Amino acid sequence: MPMLTTLLIAAAAQAGFTATLERHVAAIPRRDLAEIEATITRGDKLTLILPNGKRMTTRAEFLAFHREFFADKDWSMRFERQSLIEGKDIATATYRTWFSSTEDGKPINTSSWLTLTFRKEGGEWRLVHDQNTRIPAS
């Protein structure tokens, strides 16, 4: 492994919560599964709750969902952070999101509350809970 890559990985491992959070959120619209995987728990348990109420509870399910979601190139998503709470070993951020896509040639535009909870694992911040709640259209 080249020296620069080793240094970048070591720096990312020591990154603070906000840096890890920003890495994770920035990877979503880029459809960067490797970057997402680098910010999630290494354990088996990871909760993902989708806007339709479907709940997944494992890291494998989380990655499978994102692999399929990222394969679809017909959507865009933007984020606006609303709150951030950081403790010693656990931290949560809430975002307002806007999602745009098409279905059967018709535009779809939705907004949601996205809450991401990270926990420290071996000195690294790792995502352990992701809940996306649709905001009803007004």
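[next item in queue]
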Amino acid sequence: MRTAMPAVPEALTVPEVMTALRLSRSKVYDLIRSRQLASFTVGRARRVSPDSLRTFIQEQIEENAA
């Protein structure tokens, strides 16, 4: 029995986050380093959950609306 892969990835790579936010690699790592964007590591690979990305975007919208 084969299990289908989810349509939405469970974890995004830094390049995928870069594309989604249209930011440079260094800016994405700055956001991770400053804990504005939650991430985790698996071995040496850094990953960001789609929920963390959505939360970051929502927080930016709310912060800039005030």
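[queue empty]
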